[in-house]
Design goal:
Number of strands of chain B: 0
Order of helices and strands of chain C: HEEEHEEHHEHHEHEEEHEEEHHHHE
Number of domains of chain C: 2
Structural class of chain C: alpha/beta
Distance between the termini of chain B: 17 Å
Largest sheet of chain B: none
Structural class of chain B: mainly alpha
Oligomer: heterotrimer
Number of strands of chain C: 14
CATH architecture of chain B: Up-down Bundle
Order of helices and strands of chain B: HHHHHHHHHHHHH
Largest sheet of chain C: 10 strands, mixed
Shape of chain C: globular
Number of helices of chain C: 12
Radius of gyration of chain B: 20 Å
Chains: A mainly alpha, B mainly alpha, C alpha/beta
CATH topology of chain B: Amino acid/polyamine transporter I
Number of helices of chain B: 13
Distance between the termini of chain C: 109 Å
Number of domains of chain B: 1
Shape of chain B: globular
Largest interface: A-B, 37 and 39 residues
Strand content of chain C: 25-35%
CATH class of chain B: Mainly Alpha
Strand content of chain B: under 5%
């Protein structure tokens, strides 16, 4: 699974980075790299079995338990 | 500032909205488990309410022609508060994409490929969506027409083949449930199939003739609402009181089709329609996410960030809920409130502030 | 650069093709054991059931009976396993056989009489939840053990389960059985007032061979068997449920006997509740029939006699319906769904009565009107022999 993830990320890097480097889009490169790193770390964490906090559950907790705004 | 130079026609927009609403209509268990036999009436009432909400969207969009939601936020609220509000929208779009992808994953893992690892299925699905998004808006919306017609045909066939299994007594007793369930049901239908159109705010600026926006959008609502009405009516008539307990009523009612033992097992067509329509829906939400990111960071092109955003969507989809039961609970009970904040409240506030600050519909800017 | 993009596209397509085959879920047909019918019985241990699965041997379906006695060319085989509930038992099947059990093709689920008295929903829940099973399998109760009925080899069909399916499905042609699907049973269980009813099958000997016939209806209270209705009462059940498509009514009159064949019929059931809370069910049956045979002193093809026959037929149907409804009232079982009908038309009254429906059900009166029109008298106008005293 980890190998699978690393292959995919390598492919994405190859495909997208080449275009950006050629056109010398600095800002795009920075944004791309940061999102790339975020995605890479999240997926690696997930494949290692780390339980990530789901943002939706945060909202659900907020709306249901704190504000008591849900239907049930 | 345009991120790409694509234009779409009004007709494409109409069918895109129709297909989008249809995509949400295939999971009717959220509604049917709440208001059972009166759901068809709830659809009609919600259509009228959504009509008003769509009107609000159109007015807001036409006040700022050629600008999508993020730019509107920046103009109305100022650049800092506008960015914060856009971040809220980003969170909402991400959640929408993750929930819908999770639905696809649940369906495929539950019914079609139970043994395959969930992430692999999602990766393949999201990859195709990503490819579509990279190709651009007009490429994506071109297929709206095809998908809508396909679904209409399938719906028509299923209704004709199910006529012999329909019992119209299943629609009674009429209006006998507590009022709270009706309000909840109207809320659910207005929010989930109809008003997720808010993502189309990122696509409205691409229309070639802005005057046609109103007609196209409202016509799209009409198509989607009619189909949803027919789907819910068909399911209630065929399944009777079992609609409340089934997890996918439309799938089961299509399974019952049995014409002289020749036309059976047509549920495969339902599965195909489901996957295709959800692909369309997720692609559009995906596009909205990518454009939002590009605007927030003021990029010149959105193409490079498509694949990596896709990975984040997949990860998010995998961690949203632990089980389909939680998903169903969310859909019936919390989602109506959560989504209405972003689909109704925020745009309404934006519109009001825009009105107060005196943004009039700009005249034809020829004199500049 | 162009070459590189095509290379990427090819790589992407190759990866997709490999993944899309769905290797994890491959199920080759020859690794599956297709079950066409299930039987559930009480087993000797306490709280255990014996499940019989009837599986096809596809290669043997079209082979003719061989004359050599050692070869058994049956197209099916039965396997029985004992377990605590349905899910565990099916897994035991998979453990014992070389092929996995495939339940999506199952046509019937036969439930032994003894097991039915214990309560069957706990065993059926698996079939309702599992994605592979179909919701339109036929359910039926059998006299004796389901295992035995499923071994009866029919004459015209090669597989007993298909035979049972045909018997149940064709029940509406001679008014013997109301074929009930799994989803209909679930729907009846969900309703707070309806008592489910399933057809009963039993073995009857037709000369030298045994055959499976449908005989009456089993009446349930929630999911426990509480009684039976005879064949006559089953006919009334079918009349009310509008499931009669053909059948024969036998009338006996002072002037002789006549058999009246129903060609088509339509039943409309309505419910009426007046101010004092008295509930009346109006049943209106219309249809066409043919005089199919007669013997007697009178020539029944003359118009006045035809009217006499029609009247007799109408009376006959009316009385049989009244009798069966009274029987179910004594059993406290509303198998006709009158409670649900009341809920549809008068939900407020229903809400008041539903907690004690069995006593409210006993007070229901019927108002039946039958109107059969004779379409013809067959090939002959006059009988060849009229018995004159």
């Amino acid at each position: 699974m980890i190998l699978f993830i690393l292959t995919i990320f390598a492919l994405i890097a190859l495909v997208d980075m080449r275009g950006l480097l050629k056109k010398k889009y600095r800002k795009e490169l920075i944004v791309f790299s940061s999102i790339f790193i975020i995605a890479l770390s999240l997926s690696l964490l997930l494949s290692f079995g780390v339980a990530l906090y789901s943002p939706i559950k945060v909202s659900q907790y907020f709306l249901k338990d704190i504000l008591h705004l849900s239907y049930k | 500032m345009k991120l790409d130079n694509e234009t779409i026609t009004g007709g494409q927009l109409t069918f895109a909205i129709g297909a989008f609403i249809l995509g949400s209509s295939l999971l009717t268990s959220f509604v049917l488990s709440v208001s059972a036999q009166d759901s068809w009436l709830m659809v009609l009432i919600s259509t009228l309410i959504s009509f008003l909400i769509y009107w609000m969207y159109i007015v807001l969009s036409q006040k700022f022609p050629g600008k999508d939601l993020i730019e509107i936020n920046d103009e109305v609220f100022g650049s800092i508060v506008g960015k914060i509000i856009s971040l809220f929208y980003l969170y909402f779009f991400f959640s929408l994409a993750a929930l819908n992808t999770k639905d696809v994953g649940n369906f495929v893992s539950g019914y079609v490929l139970p043994e395959s690892p969930g992430p692999v299925v999602l990766v393949m699905f999201v990859f195709i969506c990503a490819w579509a998004v990279r190709k651009g808006v007009s490429t994506m919306l071109r297929y709206g027409f095809l998908f809508t017609i396909m679904s209409v045909l399938f719906l028509g066939f299923s209704i004709i083949f199910l006529i012999k299994d329909m019992h119209f007594g299943n629609f009674l007793p009429f209006l006998h449930l507590p009022i709270a369930t009706y309000l909840q049901s109207i809320n659910i239908i207005t929010i989930i199939p109809f008003c997720e159109i808010v993502v189309f705010f990122m696509i409205f600026p691409h229309i070639d003739q802005p005057k046609k926006l109103k007609k196209s959008v409202l016509f799209g609502l009409l198509i989607g609402a009619t189909m949803l009405f027919l789907i819910i009516a068909r399911d209630t008539a065929v399944l009777g009181n079992t609609t409340n307990i089934l997890s996918m009523p439309s799938y089961e009612s299509v399974r019952i089709i049995n014409i002289s033992n020749v036309i059976t097992r047509t549920e495969i067509l339902f599965a195909i329609a489901f996957l295709v329509l959800l692909f369309f829906k997720i692609s559009i939400i995906y596009y909205a996410i990518v454009i939002t990111l590009a605007r927030i960071f003021k990029l010149r092109t959105y193409r490079p960030i498509v694949y990596v955003t896709g990975i984040i969507i997949i990860v998010y989809a995998l961690i949203t809920f632990d089980s389909p039961m939680e998903n169903a609970f969310w859909g019936s009970n919390v989602a109506p409130i959560f989504s209405s904040l972003f689909e109704v409240l925020l745009p309404l506030i934006t519109l009001i502030i825009a009105q107060i600050r005196g943004f009039q519909k700009p005249k034809e800017a020829v004199a500049r | 650069m162009k070459k590189l993009t095509t290379l990427y596209k090819i790589i992407a397509i190759l990866i997709l093709i490999t993944l899309l085959t769905g290797c994890w879920d491959k199920r080759e047909v020859d690794t599956l054991s297709i079950a066409v019918g299930f039987g559930l019985d009480i087993a000797d241990g306490d709280d255990q059931i014996e499940m019989t699965a009837q599986m096809v041997k596809p290669s043997n379906i079209s082979m003719p009976e061989k004359s050599s006695p050692q070869e058994t060319c049956e197209a099916f085989w039965n396997a029985s396993t004992v377990g605590e509930d349905t899910d565990k038992t099916i897994r035991l099947f998979n453990n014992k056989m070389s092929r996995d059990l495939y339940i999506a093709d199952s046509q019937v689920i036969v439930i032994g009489q003894d097991l039915a008295t214990r309560g069957i929903y706990q065993y059926l829940d698996y079939f309702l939840r599992d994605h592979e099973s179909r919701l339109d399998v036929f359910l039926t109760v059998c006299e004796g053990k389901a295992k035995d009925i499923m071994s009866i080899k029919p004459q015209t069909e090669s597989i007993p389960a298909m035979n049972i399916y045909d018997v149940l499905e064709n029940g509406h042609l001679d008014m013997t059985s109301v074929s009930t699907r799994l989803i209909d049973f679930a729907s009846a269980l969900l309703s707070e007032t309806t008592a489910p009813a399933l057809p009963v099958i039993k073995v009857q000997s037709l000369g030298t061979q045994n055959a499976v016939v449908c005989d009456g209806t089993a009446v349930f209270q929630k999911d426990k068997l509480i009684g039976f209705l005879s064949e006559e009462d089953t006919k009334a059940y079918m009349w009310i449920k509008n499931q009669v498509s053909s059948g024969v009514v036998y009338v006996q009159m002072p002037a002789g006997k006549a058999d009246y064949e129903i060609v088509n019929s339509k039943t409309k059931v309505g419910i009426h509740c007046d101010k004092s809370g008295k509930i009346t069910v109006k049943v209106n049956i219309t249809g066409n029939g043919i005089l199919s045979s007669q013997i007697g002193t009178e020539d029944f093809s003359q118009p006045p006699a035809v009217i006499k026959i029609e009247k007799a037929v109408n009376e006959n149907i009316k009385n049989s319906i009244l009798e069966s409804v009274q029987k179910t009232q004594q059993m406290h079982a509303d198998i006709f769904g009158f409670g649900d009908l009341l809920n549809q038309k008068f939900p407020n009254v229903y809400d008041k009565l539903k907690s004690d429906w069995s006593s409210a059900y006993q007070k229901i009166t019927l108002d039946i009107s039958v109107n059969m029109k004779t379409r013809g008298s067959g090939r002959m106008m006059k009988p060849a022999l009229t018995k004159k005293e």
